[in-house]
Design brief:
This protein has 18 helices and nine strands. By secondary structure, the protein is α/β, with parallel strands linked by helices. It binds guanosine-5'-triphosphate (GTP) and magnesium ion. The site of magnesium ion has 6 residues, from helix 3. Guanosine-5'-triphosphate (GTP) binds next to helix 3.
Length: 554
């Protein structure tokens, strides 16, 4: 039967097991909050149980006798203990709560049983001076007699299921009458196919079979076990009521106890099961992250909601407004200045570059018009596109996490966009040098015209009063005062006319520059509020996939 222990010679390295458990923990850290909680329950349970079991005595091996009612679990328990510890009965089911018997040192076993949840009054100690060294080979064994798992009592089943999740090794006890029952195979044995190296099957009450029948029944049972995925597990025939009928079982338990491997093998099997269950949650895909095209589309949609077109339009008009106010014909300038500045109307920096009230500029600083329904839906679609693209090819659960992340800060977007627009340098803070130059020229020619006018008025006044006339110098045929007046006026109009197309061209350029800056600011908002959360999920996915790969390493 030695060779029947599948993988029995394969020792589980405790450090490797701890590394695998740590990888499961890393997986959970990456997947928590990303994937549905229900899918992570088995991994959480494993991490918690394994942590608890490994912190308890590794010198003890917890072995459970599990099986249908009347199969002889309590009889085997008593026979192994060589005492009448657990009541054996004809009325079924007899055992309602787990009983435990500890061989050897009690140190550590008590805490182990506290954790397993066997009440102190159902614990026994197999240690007596009379035993001499008879029982030494089983030192370290903690044997549990479980209630029946096919019980009419629901509480028995729940207790069995709970304990089967905690013990290190399970001895499945079947009898010649019920060994083929569907429940034991479909609900229990099949579920333990990952725990073949910590599973023993016992055909008890072998004495009830005619000797010639025994091999046939054993072969039939073996066939059923193979179908359960338990090929290779040891199958022993026992007779609990005869002292020699359990020798093989005893020997198998002695070996198990001496190896001190069952606890580690059990947990390694648990990790295998959890990893296999999580396999569909991580694929081999390496997500590339949001691509440039969808990111650009997002920036465009964000710019629309942020009112960038309205602001750039206002920048162009403000440039013209301010340029004309600085370079126009001085007599018209004052009138220009009375008209409101297009940017000021949006509560964006005025002609002097002063922003609105700084407290006000923290939230909803601008009066940029609210986005239209169309702009809002364009933004929704752009965010969807980012999520769809970034989540494409990811296994179940993750695309949803990506979509949730992309939308996670949607509520903060309006304020962030408004701050980005309000905080952008629109390029209108400085008065260009050429404005001042043209402005000065305009003043000079206006001064000349005013001086000419004054001169002429003074000449007429002197003539009217009969006073001596001024000496009027002439330039060619034209008197200087007339030249100053007409020349100044004409030059002013000419300069204004020549400046106009330049202003228009420069205003368009100012608009393009402002647009670039605003788009950059809006793109930064998109990065922070949409793309970064998406990237975080993709990083989590990468971490989860790598962690699971490490957890799968045997
Ligand atoms: N002939 C024979 N009878 C056995 C053997 N093992 C157990 N019995 C009898 O089968 C009956 C049931 O045994 P238990 O040990 O109480 O069975 P159990 O599996 O503990 O049953 P529950 O506690 O109800 O789950 C008792 O009358 C035992 O004496 C055996 O190997 N041979
Ligand atoms: Mg019993």
């Amino acid at each position: 039967m030695r060779e029947a222990f599948r993988g029995g010679d394969q020792r589980v390295d405790p450090d490797l097991l701890l590394g695998r458990l740590d990888a499961v923990r890393r997986f959970l850290a990456a997947a928590d909050g990303r994937l549905p909680d229900a899918q992570l329950v088995p991994a959480h349970t494993l991490v918690e149980r394994a942590g608890a079991r490994l912190a308890l005595s590794r010198d003890h091996t917890v072995v459970a006798l599990a099986g249908a009612t009347g199969s002889g679990k309590s009889s085997l328990f008593n026979a192994l203990a060589r005492l009448e510890l657990s009541p054996v009965g004809v009325r079924r089911p007899t055992t309602g709560v787990a009983h435990a018997c500890v061989w050897g040192p009690q140190e550590g076993a008590a805490r182990l049983l506290d954790w397993v949840g066997v009440l102190p009054r159902h614990r026994f100690v197999r240690e007596s001076p009379l035993d001499a060294d008879d029982e030494a080979a089983l030192h370290g064994l903690v044997l549990l007699d479980l209630p029946d798992f096919d019980s009419v009592q629901r509480s028995h089943r729940l207790e069995v299921d709970r304990l089967l999740g905690l013990v290190d090794l399970v001895v499945w006890v079947v009898d010649p009458q019920k060994y083929a029952d569907r429940v034991i195979h479909t609900s229990y044995l099949r579920e333990f196919h990952r725990h073949r190296d910590v599973t023993l099957v016992v055909l008890n009450q072998a004495d009830r079979l005619p000797p010639a029948e025994l091999p046939r029944v054993q072969a039939d049972l073996r066939r059923l076990l193979d179908a359960d995925g338990l090929d290779g597990v040891p199958l022993l025939a026992t007779t609990a009521t005869h002292p020699d009928g359990i020798a093989e079982l005893r020997a198998a338990l002695e070996r198990t106890v001496a190896e001190r491997q069952a606890a580690l093998r059990r947990l390694a099997g648990d990790v295998d099961g959890v990893v296999a269950g999580l396999d569909e949650l991580v694929g081999t895909a390496r997500p590339g992250g949001p691509d440039d095209a969808t990111a650009d589309e997002l920036t465009r949609a964000l710019a629309g909601t942020a009112g960038v077109p309205a602001v750039t339009e206002a920048v162009q008009r403000a440039y013209r407004h301010r340029a004309v106010a600085s370079t126009g014909w001085p007599l018209v300038r004052g009138w220009r200045r009375l008209r409101p500045d297009p940017l000021r109307r949006l509560h964006l920096p005025g002609p002097t570059g002063d922003a609105a009230d700084p407290a006000e500029s923290l939230v909803a600083a601008t009066s940029v018009p609210d986005p239209t329904a169309a702009q809002r839906s364009a933004l929704g679609l752009a965010i969807r596109a980012v999520a769809d693209h970034a989540g494409a090819g990811l296994p179940a659960g993750w695309p949803n996490a990506v979509t949730d992340a992309a939308r996670s800060r949607l509520g903060d977007l309006p304020d962030a966009l408004d701050r980005a627009v309000a905080g952008s340098d629109l390029g209108l803070n400085r008065r260009p040098f050429w404005w001042r130059l043209v402005g000065t020229v305009q003043w000079l020619v206006t001064l000349a015209a005013v001086a000419g006018l004054g001169w002429l008025v003074l000449g007429y006044a002197l003539r009217a009063l009969g006073l001596p006339e001024l000496d009027n110098p002439r330039v060619g045929e034209v008197p200087l005062p007339t030249l100053l007046l007409l020349g100044g006026l004409l030059a002013g109009l000419l300069v204004a006319a020549l400046t106009r197309p330049v202003v228009r061209w420069a205003a368009r350029r100012a608009r393009r520059r402002a647009e670039q800056r605003l788009n950059a600011a809006v793109a930064a908002v998109g990065q922070e509020y949409v793309l970064a959360p998406v990237r975080d999920v993709l990083t989590s996915y990468d971490e989860a996939r790598d962690a699971l790969r490490d957890a799968a390493r045997r």
